[in-house]
Specification:
Blueprint (H helix, E strand, L loop, with lengths): L1 H7 L6 H32 L5 H50 L2 H7 L1 H25 L2 H16 L1 H4 L2 H42 L1 H6 L3 H53 L4 E4 L2 E4 L1 H42 L21 E9 L6 E10 L4 E6 L5 H5 L10 E6 L2 E2 L5 H6 L1 E4 L8 E2 H5 L8 H10 L3 H4 L9 E2 L8 H14 L4 E5 L7 H13 L5 E5 L3 H4 L4 E5 L5 E5 L1 H7 L1 H9 L9
Parallel strand pairs: 5-12, 5-13, 8-11, 11-12
Antiparallel strand pairs: 1-2, 3-4, 3-6, 6-7, 9-10, 13-14
Helix pairs in contact: 1-11, 2-3, 2-6, 2-11, 3-5, 5-8, 5-11, 6-11, 8-10, 8-11, 10-11, 15-17, 20-21
Bound molecules: 2'-deoxyguanosine-5'-triphosphate (DGT) and magnesium ion.
Length: 590
């Protein structure tokens, strides 16, 4: 419940709307009761005395009061919708901000599909909850409370019926609440499963179609979909079952009131005397009946609120869990905020595991790179090359040991300032929808046209970008689907060059680029080496053999050598093996 309370606090910014909404609701409820009173006047006073003036006056008043009730209902509805929309928009903003701040370890823990469900579906449930809350939460107890008071005031003897019906209704509500909550919690989890399959399928349509695994994907989706349907049904069944039970108790109460009323009248009770004539007090019975309906409707609404609360509670828990997740990769308290990276990099006995107590993918790694050096990294797939370089911009923290830049531990540097001086081109080129320009300017938002032109030339991306009529305004589709693999790589390379970084890290970033362009890129890097330190990961010896030094990782996540091509050919078994396997691939022997 505390998680829901935390979200309710989001309503604080919209107090005026909440107050208007609640006041309108109170007036609406009061008008409902006033209409009943007016009805009693008509039945008990106007009709028996055939007082047409009173009848018309009271009738007109009834219509007026009912219209006020209607208007207040609209005011309440409008304001509660507004508050619900605004609150959830704020909540979504906060969630999005938080998700962006999460470290990779945090994201691995939650899983992407879960974060998507939380940012969309869970927030949607909170929106529904807010709408319900402002429309019903005050109305239900008011209808119940005033109704009960008026009913008892009208007839104590008839009120005895509530000793049976109210406990029955309350027990039903509590049981539904207890049964529904855990089921709704499960429903949200199965939506995560659905999202996971949908995400994977939508992300890789080409793989699925070319491997003709559509049937397999359909099956996976079907399973997830069935699970969702069944879990949802199990939860909804509880709410469905509640409805007829309520209606039975509801109708039985009304029948009981009429029966008791008739019985009392038969016994000579509930008689009123109009103009000296003793008549059954029909007005009283009708009024009592109407108050009872208000009481029962109040409870029914309360039951609905409970169902919405149990749904919202499941979602609120999930939202608050994300909002309160401790980001495990934090800026230090006394960080060095402003610094200019010169470019030397040191690893001191670094070990690294992706999960706490998980497998070490890097073990006891130590090396020094001087500022301005060009360093190649090679090793078999899965040897830990990508893992290693991600520690430099501090995308992950080391499990043991330290990474130093210019002799300072990266943990003591302001993360943003550190990352802004590193150009990191990831192994899979990630391109965003927008234009070529917006993609490049992610490297540096204040980049000029000349900067973009220079960077595209360095990345050998000018040959295709300059053929576009609209140059940097050229539209890129989502995930860069209208670009070839090599074009995507060159745009992401250019994005790093735009930044004019002090440390440039290329993770297999020229794998899809033709040999001529790759050579040109490497030549540019050599030309710029006085300005930046460069680390180039590659599977190909031909790409890195001319680097100042080459770091060789073995398949146990340890360093097998850190030397020049010539020396490694003499001393590193792993390097020799790789070289041997690539003979004929343009690798001259040492
Ligand atoms: P590559 O790109 O195929 O040549 O391989 P490397 O050398 O870049 O390997 P790397 O660093 O991606 O992976 C090393 C090990 O770490 C491998 O066993 C897979 C595992 N690993 C990689 N990324 C993640 C991750 O995000 N989470 C977890 N739990 N494990 C990961
Ligand atoms: Mg890799």
């Amino acid at each position: 419940m505390s998680s829901l309370m935390k979200l309710i606090k989001y309503g604080g910014h919209y107090m005026p709307n909440i107050i208007i909404s609640l006041v309108a609701m109170v007036i609406q409820v009061v008008t409902g009761f006033y209409v009943i009173r007016l009805m009693v006047v008509i039945i008990d006073d106007a009709l028996p005395a055939m007082d047409t003036t009173l009848l018309l006056r009271t009738g007109a008043l009834m219509i007026g009061v009912a219209l006020i009730g209607l208007a207040m209902g609209i005011v309440n509805n409008f304001n509660s919708q507004k508050v619900a929309m605004y609150v959830t928009a704020d909540l979504r903003d906060d969630l999005f901000e938080k998700i962006q701040a999460l470290s990779f370890t945090n994201i691995d823990k939650f899983k992407t599909s879960r974060l998507i469900t939380t940012a969309t579906n869970d927030v949607q449930r909170i929106q529904q909850f807010f709408q319900m809350l402002l429309r019903i939460i005050v109305r239900a107890p008011l209808m119940f409370g005033i109704g009960l008071y008026m009913a008892i005031d009208t007839s104590r003897s008839l009120s005895n019926i509530f000793f049976i019906s109210l406990p029955l209704l309350i027990i039903t509500i509590v049981v539904i609440m207890i049964l529904a909550f855990p089921r709704y919690m499960k429903v949200q989890k199965t939506i995560d499963g659905l999202n996971r399959v949908t995400l994977e399928t939508a992300n890789s349509p080409r793989v699925i179609k070319s491997f003709v695994t559509t049937d397999h994907e359909n099956e996976r989706f079907e399973t997830a979909n069935q699970l969702f349907k069944n879990t949802n049904l199990a939860a909804e069944k509880i709410s469905f079952a509640g409805e007829p039970i309520f209606m039975v108790i509801f109708n039985a109460t009304i029948a009981g009131i009429l029966f008791l009323g008739a019985y009392f009248m038969d016994q000579g009770l509930l008689i009123s005397t109009v103009s000296g004539v003793a008549l059954p007090d029909v007005g009283l019975l009708m009024a009592f009946n109407s108050y009872s309906m208000q009481i029962l409707f109040g409870l029914l609404m309360f039951a609905m609120v409970m169902i919405f609360i149990s749904r919202a509670l499941a979602s609120a828990n999930r939202i608050v869990e994300v909002l309160e997740e401790e980001i495990d990769l934090q800026d230090c308290v006394d960080c060095i905020e402003q610094f200019d990276v010169a470019g030397s990099i040191t690893f001191n006995n670094v070990s690294f595991a992706y999960e706490k107590d998980g497998n070490r993918v890097l073990k006891d790694i130590s090396f020094d790179i001087e500022a301005g050096q060009r360093v190649g990294i090679i090793g078999s797939t899965g040897s830990g090359k990508s893992s290693l370089i991600q520690l430099i911009p501090r995308l992950y923290d080391t499990t043991e040991g330290d990474v130093l830049i210019d002799g300072v531990n990266v943990k003591q540097l302001n993360i943003k300032a550190l990352r802004s001086q590193i150009g990191y081109v990831t192994q899979t080129a990630t391109i965003f929808s927008g234009s070529v320009g917006t993609n490049l300017m992610m490297g540096r938002p204040d980049a000029s046209f000349d900067d973009l032109e220079r960077a595209t030339k360095l990345a050998q991306a000018d040959d295709f970008i300059l053929t576009y009529d609209d140059l940097f305004n050229h539209e890129i589709q989502q995930k860069g689907t209208n670009l070839s693999g090599g074009q995507k790589q060159r745009i992401s390379l250019a994005r790093a060059f735009v930044r004019d970084p002090k440390i440039l890290i290329l993770d297999d970033s020229t794998s899809a680029v033709d040999a001529k362009s790759e050579e040109a890129i490497l030549n540019e890097i050599e030309r710029l080496s006085h300005r930046m330190t460069t680390i180039v990961i590659s599977q190909k010896i031909s790409t890195i053999k001319d680097m100042d030094k080459i770091l060789v990782l073995n398949n146990k996540g340890r360093i097998d050598g850190f030397d020049t091509h010539e020396n490694l050919m003499k001393h590193s078994e792993v390097y020799q093996e790789i070289a041997l396997s690539q003979v004929g691939g343009g690798v001259p022997s040492a």
